[in-house]
Amino acid sequence: MSYTLTLQCGCVVYVSCHPQTGVAHTRIIQARAAGCRVRRHDVGVRLFLWELLPEPVDRSSIDWNAASEAGA
Ligand SMILES: [Zn+2]
């Protein structure tokens, strides 16, 4: 059970779902768009769920400041 979806940047992502639960467990870039500006988007790269969503349901729940500090 799987499908593909196209991101806003134009890249095509292959999504593999669990046959029983239907929960998507694997998301891989299948084709990179020529106009994509996201460096991380390369064929074969695994994506996390939140990387697929142009507008997360609840952005306020994510502490961006803490995340950037941890990476600095
Ligand atoms: Zn892309």
Describe the protein's topology:
Elements: E1 2-6, E2 12-17, E3 24-31, H1 49-52, H2 64-71
Antiparallel strand pairs: 1-2, 2-3
What's the quick description here?
This protein has 72 residues and is an alpha+beta fold. It has one domain (2-65). The chain has 2 helices and 3 strands.
Question: Could you please describe the fold and organization of this structure?
Answer:
The chain is of the alpha+beta class and 72 residues long. The protein has one domain (2-65). 17% of the residues lie in helices and 26% in strands. The protein is built from 2 helices and 3 strands; from the N terminus they run βββαα. A 3-stranded antiparallel beta sheet has the order 1-2-3, with no helix packed on it. A hairpin with a 5-residue loop joins β1 (2-6) and β2. It is globular. The termini are far apart.
